[in-house]
Amino acid sequence: xxxxxRSRIVNPRLGIYFGIFAASLVGVVxxxxxxxxxxxxxxxxRMALLVAxxxxxxxxxxxxxxxxxxxxxVSGRRVPASYGxxxxxLAAFGATGIGFDALVLPLGILAGFVVMAVAVAPFYRxxxxxSLPCFLGERFSSNMxxxxxxxxxxxxxxxxxxxxxxxxALAVSWLTRGSETTAAMMVTIVxxxxxxxxxxxxxxxxxxxxxxxxxxxxxxxxxxVSVMETNLPLGQMSHGPVLRxxxxxxxxxxxxxxxxxxxxxxxxxxxxxxxxxxxSTPFTSVGGLAFVLALxxxxxxxxxxxxxxxxxxxxxxxxxxxxxxxxxxxxxxxLITTMSTIAxxxxxxxxxxxxxxxxxxxxxxxxxxxxxxxAGIDGQxxxxxxxxxxxxxxGVVLALPVLKELPAVLVHAVAIGLLSxxxxxxxxxxxxxxxxxxxxxISAPRSELIPPVVRLNTMRVALFICAGVAGLLAGLAxxxxxxxxxxxxxxxxxxxxxxxxxxxxxxxMNAWGALAGLATGxxxxxxxxxxxxxxxxILLPVIAAPLAFVAIVVxxxxxxxxxxxxxxxxxxxxxxxxxxxxxxxVRLSIQRxxxxxxx
Length: 599
Description:
The chain is mainly alpha-helical. It has 23 helices and three strands. Strands 1-3-2 form a three-stranded antiparallel β-sheet.
């Protein structure tokens, strides 16, 4: 096998480019900090920071213009592990709550990364398909499977995309003080402008910039608050004493520690809610059995997420795809521990400095958050009780720097960090949705034979239409982003997880088995939702996925075995070196088409 130097695959100047980006971002924040001390208006600083961040993202997306289908679909397979891995981690995380029970979300996502890295992603990278429907369609040599998988994957992606646009719109509305509907339209326009020029190529490099922005915007204020509370900058490793103090205060105040029923799953909603229950007591809003089952369901949905798994196809080699998940787990661990630190420090601030204040003094301290709709005061609660303060779940990260009276620019930077994370997740979902509609539905089954310019324009138009529909749904349709995120995981975990896993690990599986698995997983999950009328359907994949596995095995056994060509593809995807299966099939298809034309 010929050896290709790394410099021929990966741009050696990437570090310089993103170093300039990080320096530019830090420079903007430093200038605004100086202007704040000189008396600049708060509105001016908010708008300047928002415009600067979005302009940088849009500039990177436009500079990544794709002129070939390979660049638009898989970023030319030139995204190194140290860039693709962190972007995957940031794109996977959504809204989370406070306390032990909410750990089921990040822990489930982290477990999903492990399953993806070990059992799915390396083989998917060797296959090299730009989307999950393309992978399944070629794996079973069936356009019917490709279209069915496209319908299922598109359902999961549209739910995720609407959820992330809603979260991004919330951050924009905090900064602009405008309506969330207008903010949703603005976010949609930014996504189209950022992703349409280069597709996955624009997504890869804009996501790398968003990772830098989100980490700096969240970690720096947390480090400052940690120094104020513990005299150490690494609050993720030093908030233990603060947590012990919080526990003692909660005991003295007699805060209840109710134990939920085993199957209860009741995470906080989007509205203002009182802070009840002890912080570190497990299973107060999520039962013990529900915690385990939900973790398994989230793991399954994340492992084959149609917005995350195809990113492994952008790695230069299978080895780089494996290594990328080391970075993914590292960044995921940083995010999980940082969110825990924010929760501990906020609870400490709440118990030691807020609830003991008179109501009028408390109202003055909480006014910035109350004006943003992120907090409130319950006048009916007993004075001095923890229940007197109401918080909005999605504003917890922003609440800590506001209550610690950090400079306004740093508070606005935290909102920019949340916006960056939401844009990374929404961009990943929108790009894959555009590829599925444009390439797997409109241009299939032989999209590789379409002229490159027509193929690129078809995917760009599809991306634009998908963004418009999602923006309208996010701006006009009601719905909690967290519920939509859970729904997305339900769809992928119930139907795609069994099909993708067995497509890789069981040669005997055929197209009829794949169709049966998709239909069973999706059908059982929807029937379960209608039967239970639950708003939190995350436990449904625990029932739907095993039934889908059974349907795949039974139907595959009673129908004809796959042909020799399919068996050779399954064998080849288990060999890490060599040409990707998808690229080989495209090359052979083009050669056959040329031969037929000459004949």
